[in-house]
Amino acid sequence: MDQLDQLDRRRFLAASSALAAGSLLSRHAFAESRAQFPKDFLWGMATASYQIEGAWDEDGKAESIWDRYTHTVGKIKGAATGDVACDSYHRYREDIAILKQLNQKSGRFSISWSRIQPSGTGPANPKGLDYYSRYVDALLEAGIRPFCTLYHWDLPQGLEDRGGWPNRDLAGYFADYAGILAKALGDRIAVWAPFNMPWAFTYYGYGIGIHPPGRAEYGLFIKAAHTVALAQGECSRAIKAASSKATVGSAYSMAPGYPKTDSEADIAATARYHAMNNLYFLEAAMKGEYPKAFVGETPFELMGYKAGDDKIMKAPLDWVGFHYYTRRVISDAKNTGSAGPARFGTETESDAPDANGRDPYTRFHAIMPTDHPLTEAGLEIYPHGIYDLVMQITREYNKPIIEITESGCCYNDTPYDAEGGHVPDTRRIAFFRGHLSELARAIHDGARVRAYHAWSLLDNFEWTDGYTQRYGLTYVDYRSQKRVVKDSGLWYGQLAATGQL
Ligand code: FCB
Questions:
Q1: Residues within 6 Å of ligand 1 by CB
Q2: Atom of ligand 1 lying closest to residue 471 CA
Q3: Closest ligand 1 atom, CA of 463?
């Protein structure tokens, strides 16, 4: 090494250790000062229709794809179904009272399409509309902002029978459904998100068949995703035409991706992963185009793309909503060689055995690492990821208003008699404390985050895991339907009151 090189190297080392010390210092100082959230920050909790309502065939509701799936032998752990779930259809007032008791300011809930239009098209079912109208009124009476998700995975079976999401006619049907809702509820709801986790339900349901309708073909996935991107735009216009106070955002699943090595190939693969898993529908809405998720050309033909679709997809969001549960480590498919069997769960993902990666178009391997402790659902706990993700979206989309639509963890703690029936779920408190302090740091560093929704108000039906995973801040005894607010719920309620972590 010649002298100049050595000098450069010393300068570089000095500069980088100063940088590291500086950032350590600011993180430390920040933690010491006990994060204070903005006064008007919206503390909230989230739920989803199929996971809590039960009453699967009441008041004119028809079958959804989740009803069909859970009624099929062998699909769900413990043969569980959402037929009764938390019985919230009948107990919603009690549930909203818990939100109020815990000082919540935002209640994110979803509407079951097959209660509103039983077969997916045609006139509205007055009883279905009436239920959600009463629900929204009860939220407002409790001083809670209603946040409405139009679709949290429970497609009317009648529409699956017509081809499901790969059939692009569903974009128009979805807009009709949205219009009905905005007309009936748009005088009281100002915050709408068309789809919960669009990448996940299209990929799981049509790409690999681990969720209903259980179809598994890449072409079906990419078609379904395209219909959903069209539906997102159509729905936004339908809502805004019917309600002048409506704002439309999202409830995307996002998990920050970190390259496995600093090779160019892994960095490029991480960019493709980010485009496919995090930004696909966001870019579609904001710009009317798909981001560069593919190694070669965008497979327009496979997705059934037609001239003019860009204009249909484009409907810029008023705010950007996404969930955070955990992270991914990404590598270029060709570099990894063979890997273990693919495993996908609602929030997990592990390497696919195929040398092409998950599919021949995106060609990356994504895994959820296990370097840190795991929750009881097997998700790696990585609080720093929420900071990275929020800052990344803040940079890439020019400081949008952000809502965290879900964040939470599974721990199966139960009421403890020796402590007066309390549920001492201290690990959940630690989880929220860690994530919220990283979120506060992002706000401090300039991110415009206005809301955080803990998943979930109640223990509930956790999809193919049935009732084996408890995510609630309230414990539910499924035999008696008795609710007990867990220690984490009490802690979170206190935080909502003071805003101080
Ligand atoms: C999210 C889903 C939600 C719940 C949590 C644990 O992916 O939106 O319904 O299953 O995970």
A1: 48, 51, 196-197, 253, 346-347, 406, 455, 462-463, 471
A2: 6
A3: 10
How many Å lie between the centroid of ligand 1 and the Cα of residue 26? 33
What residues contact residue 330 under an 8 Å CB cut-off, 6+ apart?
A: 257, 258, 259, 260, 266, 269, 270, 273, 364, 365, 366
Does the predicted TM-score (pTM) go above 0.90? yes
* Multiple choice CATH, 38-498, 3.30.565.10, 3.40.50.2000, 1.10.1660.10, 3.20.20.80: 3.20.20.80
Give the DSSP H or E segment for 448.
strand 448-455
Both structure tokens of 492: 């979170």
pLDDT digits (tens, 9 = 90+) for 436-477: 999 999 999 999 999 999 999 999 999 999 999 999 999 999
CA 336 – ligand 1 centroid, Å: 29
The tens digit of pLDDT for each residue in 19-58 reads 343 344 455 555 545 799 999 999 999 999 999 999 999 9
CA 464 to chain centre: 17
User: What is the distance between the alpha carbons of residues 457 and 407, in angstroms, rounded to a whole number?
Assistant: 11
- The C-alpha atoms of residue 462 and residue 81 are separated, in whole angstroms, by 10
Compute CA 319 distance to the chain's CA centroid, rounded to the nearest angstrom.
Answer: 15
What are the tokens at 132? 């959600």
Contacts of 278 (CB under 8 A, 6+ apart): 252, 254, 255, 256, 257, 322, 389
Per-domain residue ranges of the chain: 38-498
Return the best residue to mutate from 462, 469, 473 for the ligand 1 pocket (most ligand atoms within 8 A of CB).
462
Report how far ligand 1's centroid is from the alpha carbon of 242 (Å).
Answer: 29
C-alpha 202 to ligand 1 mean position (Å): 14
